[in-house]
Amino acid sequence: YISRITEVNPTINAVIENRFQNALAEAQQADDFVRSSGLSCEQLKEKHPLLGVPVTVKGSIAVAGMMHGAGRVDHTERAKIDATPVRYAKDAGAIPLLTSNVPELCMNWETTNKLIGTTANPYNNCRTPGGSSGGEASLIGCGASLIGIGSDIAGSLRLPAHCCGIWGHKPSPNVVSSVGHYPDCKNKQEWNEVFTVGPLARYAKDLKLLLSVIAEPNVKEELKLNEMVDVSKIKVYYIKDIKSSLSTRVDSDIIRAIEEVIAHFDTFCSCTEVALPFMELCAELSYLRLLNIDDVENLFEGKGDGAYSELLRFLCGKSIYEFTSICYGVLRRNLGLIPAQLMKKINAYIDKLRKEFLKVLGDDGVLIMPTNPCEAAYHGDIYRRLFNNGYCSIFNALGFPVTNCPIKFSKNGLPLGIQVVAARNMDRLTLSIAEEIEKSFGGWKFQ
Q: What UniProt keywords are attached to this protein's entry (predicted)?
């Protein structure tokens, strides 16, 4: 993996910092442990399920000794301790190789910052890998990593997985600890409802393995990840296009991908097309819901204090920050212009949509729909399609687990994914559907 990373990184620019020498020493220690432990293969698998397995980590998630500034040029402090999910992965025997590139403060669906630069899509260097887990997805997509730890708020794990043709899972809220992620939020209760740390992988079955390792011990029993799931008993619902007035229409290639997947499941499952109220407003509802969370770490104090002066510096070419990070402050500064009654109505719409979803899905159903209406955008073009990511972000607002599944390639040779959604804490259903999709459609293919 070190050799492959060294080969591809000059092209994709996905690495913030590597720890190759430490990783090689830890690999030798793992070999020595296997020889001297006296444990059987089954015992080793039970105690250390990731023993000697290399893992890559999103640059916003703390790895002890590594830079931990989420792409900020003025935040070069090194992490003193591992983030909780990284510590769990290490305890299971995993060996971190590097931290991967992120947009500044993770506030972009394009992975670019002024510290490292822009990360490229492994299938076409002119295209984005998505964001904010874009460095992670790009490395896994081109075979330079097997599994990785990313994070998701507004689709920032699933969009890169879609763009780079890999598997990615946004867990249910509070399944994986967010301790050690930067940026963080003081309003933990609200933040942990919409923000999650989760696994990315080249192969579908590794999502469940990595999630079972990094999940908090107190939720593992409820998740029942090791419980066998009879896929034929899962009720499959699907949406081809939410028909939002703000997003682009779903590409015909993606609609065909959904139709092919449904045709497969229709041979042994109950499959039903559905229309849910307010889904056409998914971008508006979710973006305002996420923007309304107070005390998220950003460039500015309070509700965007100083954002306008920094925007002026940017327009004069004097700012050291990215436009998207500044825009977050500007938007927060103007949040007070939204009437309180409107925000109350938005939250009521979200609650009603959640109830409708739960009524449909129950504890034995999944929803299949596009992860994004389009293939990976050209660099910079994603800003013209900002509302497309409502397809992802609505499930952060609703608090549901979602898995991105690579299905096929577009006529331009770019990966196309779909997402599988289930009710809260029913992660095992989306992961089981993902494994069935991989068996039937092949999953990751680097071409």
A: Hydrolase
